[in-house]
Amino acid sequence: MAEPPVIIWQQEVESVLRYRDLVPRLEDALGKFSRRDRAEVVQPVRAAVPLQKHSGFMGLMPTYMENDGVLSTKFVCFYKREKGSTLPAVQATVVLLDPERGNVKAVMDGEVITTMRTAAVSAISAKLLMASGAEVLAILGTGTQALSHYNIFTEMFSFKEVRVWSRTKENVERFVRSVGGGVRGCGSAEEAVRGADVIVTVTGSTEPVLHGQWVKAGAHVAAVGACRPDWRELDDVLMKSAVVYADSREGALSESGDVILSGAQVFAELGDVINGTRPAEREKTTVFKSLGMGVEDAVSAQLVFDQWTAKQTKP
Ligand SMILES: NC(=O)C1=CN([C@@H]2O[C@H](COP(=O)(O)OP(=O)(O)OC[C@H]3O[C@@H](n4cnc5c(N)ncnc54)[C@H](O)[C@@H]3O)[C@@H](O)[C@H]2O)C=CC1
Ligand SMILES: O=C(O)C1=NCCCC1
Where is the secretion signal located (predicted)? Predict the structure, then answer.
């Protein structure tokens, strides 16, 4: 009989997961995904079950990495929240299984994993696609993802200026306080992004919050919100003038309103750039459309499991 699963909850995930370990694993996973070799990664497009009464979705994200012996699935519920709602926008759990026997090895909190791996993949997009000498970072949104993006972007890069915008002045002020100052709070999205070299959109908006006419030529945009086919964060002007990258081409074509409704072409996946099969158009305006992938959760969960197990066996 198999051992019962271990439960690894939020504080423990937080205590073992570090960006410096996560980033190389994610780069490797993105490259493997884009090779479309079924011995490396099997990852169908996320199944999304509508939770109509609650304006949300439950996403199921199964992944198998045969060569690496990793089998997992994430359950993620995400919601369109009304202004002033105190309910969370995203809740997630990751289940890690033994691929040979099929038993569950671990059930772990998926919120920290989702928060950190999403920000880490955006940072990888910036590393690959932003112009050299980028100085100004703008973040639209001030929630969970805004903070994780702030943390990794300032850890990995040396921006001279960081700007942030949100719908309310209170949210902007709270965010600026939470990171200990050093960030310029802006009164409008336009003020935040004019002249910025890198722009991160991490809002719950379903309408464009970023307009192409504000975006400096050659800027890099990491677009993280709007993960349904009829939701938008970016307008048509930006989508049609930029070189568009995605984590998954199939994911973007079935889930991204910014891609589907603008009719923009997906030029490449991040993994293609990592594999050297498609170019990084650093000198052009680039958009990385992030939808989130099961393979990112799989390698993150395996990393958490390995670190957590090593911690248990230490004297
Ligand atoms: N691509 C991916 O892998 C992932 C994407 N997401 C998405 O990223 C987005 C942010 O997620 P969290 O930070 O966890 O949510 P959150 O609720 O913590 O923060 C959302 C932010 O967006 C702002 N916002 C909401 N509606 C807006 C509107 N209409 N216009 C302008 N701003 C608005 C809120 O005031 C808040 O600052 C969500 O759309 C979420 O679904 C989340 C996790 C992973
Ligand atoms: O990949 C994920 O996890 C999510 N993607 C889009 C919506 C929220 C969670």
Answer: none
Tell me the C-alpha distance between 180 and 178, whole Å. 5
95 beta partners:
73, 107
The question of ipTM being above 0.95 is answered as: yes
In order, the DSSP letters of 76-96 are EEEE-PPTT--S-SEEEEEEE
DSSP code string of 158-192 = --SEEEEE-SSHHHHHHHHHHTTS-SEE-SSHHHH
Q: What is the CATH number of domain 6-113+295-313?
A: 3.30.1780.10
Cα–Cα dist 18/116, whole Å: 9
The pLDDT tens digits of the residues spanning 69-85 come to 999 999 999 999 998 89
Is the separation of the CB atoms in 224 and 290 below 8 Å?
A: yes
Pocket residue to mutate for ligand 1, from 79, 122, 139, 167, most atoms within 8 A of Cβ: 167
Considering the chain, tell me which residue range(s) the CATH 3.30.1780.10 domain(s) occupy.
6-113+295-313
Buried/exposed 205-231: b ≥16 CB within 10 Å, e otherwise: beebbbebebbeeebbbbbbbbbbeeb
**pLDDT of 159 above 80:** yes
Residue of 78, 81, 296 to mutate, ligand 2, most atoms within 8 A of C-beta: 78
For residue range 287-314, what is the model confidence (pLDDT) as tens digits? 999 999 999 999 999 999 999 999 998 7
- Domain 127-292, CATH: 3.40.50.720
